[in-house]
Prior knowledge:
Layout: H1 2-5, E1 8-9, E2 40-42, E3 45-47, H2 54-85, H3 90-97, H4 101-113, H5 125-131, H6 136-149, H7 153-167, H8 183-196, H9 200-218
Parallel strand pairs: 1-2
Antiparallel strand pairs: 2-3
Helix pairs in contact: 2-3, 2-4, 8-9
Amino acid sequence: MARQAGLTAGPQASPATDLPQPSVRPPRTAGAGPRREQVLTTKVGLQMPTGMAYDEWERAGRQLAGVLDSSCWWLGDWLRFGKDHYTDRYQRGIRAVGLSYQTLRNYAWVARRFDITRRRSGLSFQHHAELASMPVPEQDLWLDRAEQRQWTTKQLRSALRAARQGDRPQPAADPNRLLQLPGSRLQWWHKAAEQAGVDFEQWVTAALDSAAASALEELSAVPAGRGPAGAAPPEGPADLPVAIGA
């Protein structure tokens, strides 16, 4: 692992069977630090040279992140294998290595949803986890998009959220919803109704009917199919009242 990542394992590192082997270096004398441009990995931390160039430091970070991401796949595949081959003993193996069973189950679920031939090395384990619940064709579609557009996990999540919202049917407009109007306009209409000597609701209904008749009259020149000009409003099932909000 360390050779591929460009990191060198220190004296406390313990290699795992059948995994890329770290290059174990002999113990250093007391007070001696790591050589220039060399990062030593141990079970309890990293030893980095004080004179390390920024580019090397950044590269080491990318490599460490890659190892962490790969370990999610490794652990997921490890648990899958144990569950498939050691049904009566694999939980004992989990206890023996001291890892969280729930965390391993999450890794194994994602690993099972993506055959190793479908995993994208250019995308993180978390990219795949975001898509794990989808059918395979949709997984591949979104993996392609994320890879081609170089999305971060957050960008992929946002794109998925936007797509889901776009697929939702928009709620139909409520014909009986309250009409929000400025208070000054309502006062103006109340005053007009008082001057006409009619009830406010009757005045509003008459004003709207008049406006509708005028609009339909303007359409009288349109070819057939529009109905007679100035036609009276159709009668509803019970002439539902229109609510005007204050």
